[in-house]
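This part of the workshop introduces the protein records we will be handling. To make this concrete, we reproduce a full record directly below:
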Amino acid sequence: MLDRKMNRLIATSSVAVRFGAMALVGFAASAVGMAPAVVGATATSQASSICSKVPASEVAAIVGYSVPTGQLDAITLPATKTNYEISTKSISCTYGNETSLATIPKVVTLTIETTSKSLTTAEIKQSLAKVASDGVKMTIKPYSGLGGTAYYFTFSEAGINAQGLSVFNGTHGFGAAVETNKLSLAKLAQLTKLAGSL
């Protein structure tokens, strides 16, 4: 029973961080489903040359500990009424091991995405309210210095804390997230710049 609960926490945390790193579109455009089980969503996971654009050594130099080579997760969400008729293609590179609660705080996720249209501020706020009503405690603040429209976000669920930075440039976005609240904002910004090079 404990193993099942732990696996659920790990899955919830890692998926939520990936979607949070999707420049908030993961939360905003698909707030009712924070996993590839969203109706019509497709997902793949494999090693990729996309992730090799940011070597593990560059990520490690920022966070201060060794990380494995980034593993690709590609998620495509179709346009539906639930996500404001916005389709999303997200590519995440995960640097870290998500096999236990002890390893989660060292996971780093870099994400790039393309949406079929930009989200409005009202749509983002509506969707974040939906996420909060589902039990995720989330804060979001504007952030400057990364180009485009950027946001710093934090969230916690089931005792797992995470933070990230997301940058919007019209229908393109990129971001970085970590599953800990102990990484400085300056280092998180450096990781976000790496995500922009994917």
Summary: The CA atoms of residues 117 and 154 lie 25 Å apart. The first helix runs from residue 2 to 21. The chain has one domain: 2-195. The chain is about 30% helix and 30% strand.
